[in-house]
Amino acid sequence: MLKKVSTAAPGPSSSHFYCIEKHEPISYAMLVTNQDDEIIFHQYYAGPQPVENFLMKAKEISLELIKQLTIVSKIEIKDESPYDPSRCVICNKLFQRGEFKVRRHEHHQNATTGLAHQVCNILYRKTFFIPVIIHNSKNYDSHLLLKNLPSKFAEDITIVPVNLERITMFTLDDLKFLDSYQFLDASLDTLINSIKPQL
C-alpha cells in the first residue's frame, strides 16, 4: 500500500528530492510444500505488522520441519544401493586396507547411502535449511523483510549482495530466502496465465 507523506518542498534555487509516498506492506500469502510437492500449510494474512507476522510464522514452521527431519528412524539394511563400496561416500577417497568402515545412512529417510570411514561419519554434520522462495525478492521484497526484521529474530544472518541495492540471497538462521525470478524469468502475471487450465 502506498501511503502519502506530507513534506515541505525546498526552495526552487537548489537541487532536491523529497518523499511523497511510503510503501507499507499490508498482507502476505504463504504456501508450504513437502519434498513430494504436497501442500502441508497455507495462510493468507492481512492485518497489522504483516512482515513481522510472516517472519515469525516462517520461523515457527521451519523449526517444526527441521525437528521432523532430525527424527531418527529404524534402519533397514539393503545392499542393493548403487554406491561404490570401494570409496567413502563422504570424502570420496578409496578405502585403505585396515581402515574401519561403517554404513552411512540418512536417519530421517530410513535409507543406507553407502560406506564411510568411521572418522568421516563421526565428523559429518548435516545442516538443514528451509528455502523461502519469494518472487523478485532480489529487487525489492528482501528490503521490506530486512528493514522490518524484529530484533533478536535470528542469531545467524548471512546476506549475499549483488550491490548496495540488490540482494541475491540471505539467510536468517535456518531460513534461506531465495528469489524465484532467478529461476523463472517472467512476471507473476505471465507465470499465472501460463498455468491456467485449458478450457
Topology of this protein?
Elements: E1 2-4, E2 21-23, E3 27-33, E4 39-46, H1 50-69, E5 101-106, E6 111-117, H2 118-123, E7 130-134, H3 137-147, E8 157-161, E9 167-172, E10 175-179, H4 188-194
Parallel strand pairs: 7-10
Antiparallel strand pairs: 1-2, 3-4, 5-6, 8-9, 9-10
Short description:
This is DNA-directed DNA polymerase. The protein contains four helices and ten strands; from the N terminus they run ββββαββαβαβββα. By secondary structure, it is of the alpha+beta class.
Structural write-up:
- By secondary structure, the protein is an alpha+beta fold.
- It has 4 helices and 10 strands.
- The protein has helices at about 50-70, 120-125, 135-145, 190-195; strands at about 1-5, 20-25, 25-35, 40-45, 100-105, 110-115, 130-135, 155-160, 165-170, 175-180.
- The chain has a 4-stranded mixed beta sheet with strand order 7-10-9-8. A two-stranded antiparallel ribbon has the order 1-2. A two-stranded antiparallel ribbon has the order 3-4.
- A hairpin with a 5-residue loop joins strand 3 and strand 4.
- The two termini are about 35 Å apart.
